[in-house]
Amino acid sequence: QVQLVESGGGLVQPGGSLRLSCAASGSSFSINGMGWYRQPPGKQRELVAVISSVGSTNYADSVKGRFTISRDNAKTTVYLQMNNLKPEDTAVYYCNVQGRYRRPTSWGFTDSVFDSWGQGTQVTVSS
User: How many whole angstroms separate alpha carbon 104 and alpha carbon 14?
Assistant: First the structure.
């Protein structure tokens, strides 16, 4: 499957900014959608933002106007620009990428769907 590597987390004061990155790697794959989830301490994982294959975006109400999701020209790296961070934004942030990849078989090749998750990066907002 496709591997994801996240970076950009850290400790920031309220009102500060961070930019998260998630790079997808592999071979013979195409991405349909990319998104960011987060899991605050003691709470369930929740969707933060998503970007589709055609570039449309959706955001959780709690981050609208503060966070921006984007991707590079190759559509293999997704970013999350987080501005005006609040303590309630503290969480482990995970990127998620969905798409298709080609696998060799004894008779040729076959396309398979993948749903990959990054390892998570800690974002802590505290004064």
Answer: 49
Q: Which residues contact 36 (CB under 8 A, 6 or more apart)?
A: 20, 22, 47, 48, 49, 50, 69, 78, 80, 93, 94, 95, 96
Residues present in the chain in total:
127
> pLDDT by residue (tens digit) across 16-54?
999 999 999 998 899 999 999 999 999 999 999 999 989
- Given a cut of 80, whether residue 1 has pLDDT beyond it is no
Contacts of residue 5, defined as CB under 8 A and 6 or more positions apart, other chains included, come to 22, 23, 25, 118, 119
- Cβ 98 vs Cβ 31: under 8 Å: yes
The C-alpha atoms of residue 40 and residue 54 are separated, in whole angstroms, by 30
